[in-house]
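Entry 14. Structure prediction run on the chain below.
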Amino acid sequence: AKPDPRPFHEAVRRLGLTSPRAIMVGDSETDILTARNAGVPVIGVPFGYTPRPVQEFGPDRMIAHFDEAYEAIQDLFAAV
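Output returned:
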């Protein structure tokens, strides 16, 4: 279970990707911790179900809507 990174790594493996080319999108502290444990960047979204705002947990980027995801992903990949 999250924040254990093994399920994330398994999903990446099944997609035929490598972790440096993967990004997690999440709405909670657990999602941020999972990405950190997996060693991948994380994009936070504010429309989740957590009592504390996800930006408090330090995601690499924040987006307010999924139409902002492409630019955020490109920026994060450029930084790797």
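The beta strands are 24-26, 42-44, 61-62.
Filed with the rest of this week's runs.
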